[in-house]
Amino acid sequence: MSGPPTPARVPVGVVDPRHLEPVVGPHRLRELLDSARRVRALLGSRPVVNVSSTATGGGVAELLQMLLGYARGAGVAAEWRVITGSPEFFAVTKRIHNGLYGSPGDGGPLGAAERRIYERAIATNGDRPLGSIRRGDVVVVHDPQPAWLVPLLVDRGARVVWRCHVGIDAANEWSERAWSFLRRYVEPAHAHVFSRASFVPGFLAGAPVAIIPPSIDPLSPKNASMSRPAQRTALAAAMLLRRDGLGRSRRVTRHVHLLREGGALPADGPIVVQVSRWDRMKDMRGVLDGFVEHVPPRLGARLVLAGPAPTGVADDPEAAAVWDEMVERWHSLPTVARRRVQLALIPMDDPDENAYVVNALQRHATVVVQKSLAEGFGLTVAEAMWKSRPVVASAVGGIADQIVDGESGVLLDDPSDLGAFGAAVARLLADPAEARRLGRNARRRVRERFLPDRHLIQYAKLLADLAEAGSG
Ligand code: UDP
User: Fold this and answer.
1) From CA 24, how far away is CA 41, in angstroms rounded?
2) Nearest atom (ligand 1) to Cα of 165
């Protein structure tokens, strides 16, 4: 029998949502538990199956691990499966991904040959039916990589949601091209979810679309509170900071791979940090140039650009090339500039250790930057805001929903304006009181808007609407 294939299952934890009470308070927790009860009544023992393209690395993996953990803790049978693909498949999906961000990506075409490569995933993922999916089950398909599954699942009688985590505020030729490639796969879904209203493509006007921004887990190794000594010990164990008499870390055993000149950073010097995948949309190169050229050396700050080892993210074929370009650029800097910039690869072998190091680095940062050229949401922004860090970030995509300029961070209207970027960073380095004020407000804003209870309640509503539409 042919039908949708069986992508590999990803193990998901079970996290009791009541652990959130100290953060969200009793009222919000009650609302969450009430909506979980309604979902359980609606679904009975049926699972909510999520499908994405990678179990580690990047925002979607980060999001699913935590959201599904809480959903399971609330008694909802949430599952997660990942598809596989050939390097050619992921080259095509990366082109689509870049296109949805309004960029040509590697400049290659999206024509009939690419469609054949894309649809070959149906065969390469195996020809068994998608696990136990039965008529009426709910499947949430994330992003373009597994979108080919949508029509197959619809044919099978599943209730299918396509959730798109990427997008651009104003369509251009590249986004139009990517949408015309994707349209036939995603249009048949029964509901569509976007992080921002401006990301919804024209052909979905009038369709049932839900706007659900992402959220972060305040209790995960990535975001849980961490004392200052623990931060320093973790960063010293990872070799980012000088040991300076700090003890051993029980949580960090692997070294970060570093490109630097002049040894580890002093534990008490100011640092500017961007944590991102090695993706052109994150503009690590622009951060480096903007910092070196426009943040005065007399402020004493160092820049740390950190990301996963470029082989660590399966669906991201561009990462190695972007990393190589960064290495080349770094080597081309004069020695004095090289001393001010470190490139860091944080090992991905142990996701909890990776998350713990990112947590320590974000907390230790004097200023966090996210100078993306386009961004679906930008979890790294919410993560830093939750840690009360002052953030300087581009006013693109979902970042503009997170930061209120001048209140809970600094927004850059033109991400390509390196002078404005450098000036904003320099201003915060020189004004710790202002940095603290922005950081305090940032944490409050994340508590109000970007925690999992709000996110799960919106999902519960979507499932209820879906069920109602299905019975109508
Ligand atoms: N991340 C990580 N280790 C790294 C680099 C990134 O854990 O070395 C995480 C980061 O903390 C965030 C996610 O990957 O949780 C990136 O999500 P975001 O929405 O910022 O961007 P995306 O990668 O989805 O484009």
Assistant:
1) 24
2) 24
